[in-house]
């Protein structure tokens, strides 16, 4: 067995774990594969003869690579989110299978990926490594260049952002969730009569300028007209929609492959949806506080 084979086998044994870490850090399969490849290059050029825990060492390497990539992404925030989510995904030689990434996003949780993308890079790293993969804070601290105590605070702050703070009571929140779940089911299944039942007769639908540029109508009034706009979920991609907390109340995000493209804010009165606001403007999306709904 040559020297390269000695390196390849232990690295390949760790690849699934490294890929899982990188995907949750980056939310993109192509970028995760790039991060793992960079970790391989670093590994192949390093003397690891004294490393007692290769898996932990490689996790640290790939985490540092992902943190650098997240910082670079932050520096590009002025670029259009629409370009970021709609453009072709960069990938390795041979490309990334969109269906594979869609399945991976579903398994991780589309809503979680959306919420993670609202965190600062260091918060995201601390949360992912500690809360998802159980890495101790004293091992995360050198990566984010903070003390273990400060790193614990990063993860705690991220945890509060991920979980959110409902503005409604538990009973009201459960009620809102039932309405949203019924709305999504009817939309996905094309049950138009059911959609009409969920919409208030005087419901108002409003879309921002970015949603309008994608084919939405700026304002629609009346259940029948709004239903026709939403029917089947084709235009708004409700196949990819997931309920979330939006500024403390239930709404939902549309996030193919975990990439946020649209958010619908809902006003629910007397068990029916009275107002729908479609938000697609990147600047506005970044201002909203999006959090996971408890199971």
How are the SSEs placed, and which strands pair?
Blueprint: H1 3-26, H2 29-44, H3 54-75, H4 81-86, H5 98-108, H6 110-116, H7 121-132, H8 137-144, H9 148-163, H10 170-189, H11 192-198, E1 199-207, H12 209-213, E2 219-221, H13 223-230, E3 241-246, E4 249-254, E5 262-269, E6 272-279, H14 282-287, E7 290-291
Parallel strand pairs: 1-6
Antiparallel strand pairs: 1-2, 3-4, 3-7, 4-5, 5-6
Could you walk me through the main structural features you see in this protein, from its secondary elements to its overall organization?
With 295 residues, this protein is of the alpha+beta class. It has two domains: 3-163, Butyryl-CoA Dehydrogenase, subunit A, domain 3 (Up-down Bundle); 170-291, Nuclear Transport Factor 2, Chain: A (Roll). The chain contains 14 helices and seven strands. It has helices spanning 3-26, 29-44, 54-75, 81-86, 98-108, 110-116, 121-132, 137-144, 148-163, 170-189, 192-198, 209-213, 223-230, 282-287; strands at residues 199-207, 219-221, 241-246, 249-254, 262-269, 272-279, 290-291. A seven-stranded mixed beta sheet has the order 2-1-6-5-4-3-7, with helices on both faces. Strand 3 and strand 4 (249-254) form a beta hairpin. The termini are far apart.
């Amino acid at each position: 067995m040559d020297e390269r084979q000695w390196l390849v086998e232990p690295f390949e044994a760790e690849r699934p774990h490294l890929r899982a870490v990188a995907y949750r850090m980056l939310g993109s399969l192509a970028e995760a594969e790039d991060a793992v490849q960079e970790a391989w290059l670093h590994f192949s050029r390093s003397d690891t003869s004294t490393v007692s825990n290769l898996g932990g060492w490689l996790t640290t390497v790939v985490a540092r690579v992902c943190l650098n990539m997240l910082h670079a992404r932050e520096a590009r925030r002025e670029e259009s989110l629409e370009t970021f989510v709609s453009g072709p995904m960069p990938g390795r030689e041979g490309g990334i299978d969109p269906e594979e990434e869609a399945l991976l996003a579903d398994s991780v949780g589309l809503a979680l990926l959306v919420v993670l993308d609202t965190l600062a890079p260091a918060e995201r790293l601390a949360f992912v490594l500690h809360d998802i993969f159980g890495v101790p804070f004293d091992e995360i601290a050198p990566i984010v260049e903070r003390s273990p105590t400060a790193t614990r605070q990063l993860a705690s702050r991220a945890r509060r952002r991920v979980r959110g703070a409902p503005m409604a009571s538990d009973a009201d929140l459960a009620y809102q969730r039932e309405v949203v779940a019924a709305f999504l089911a009817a939309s996905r299944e094309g049950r138009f009569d059911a959609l009409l039942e969920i919409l208030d007769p005087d419901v108002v639908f409003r879309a921002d300028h970015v949603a309008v540029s994608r084919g939405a109508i700026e304002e629609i009034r009346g259940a029948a007209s709004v239903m026709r706009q939403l029917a089947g979920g084709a235009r708004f991609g409700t196949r990819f929609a997931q309920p979330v907390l939006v500024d403390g109340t239930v709404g939902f995000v549309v996030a193919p492959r975990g990439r946020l493209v649209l958010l619908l804010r809902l006003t629910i009165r007397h068990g029916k949806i009275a107002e729908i606001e479609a938000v697609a403007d990147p600047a506005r999306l970044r201002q909203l506080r999006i959090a996971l709904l408890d199971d």
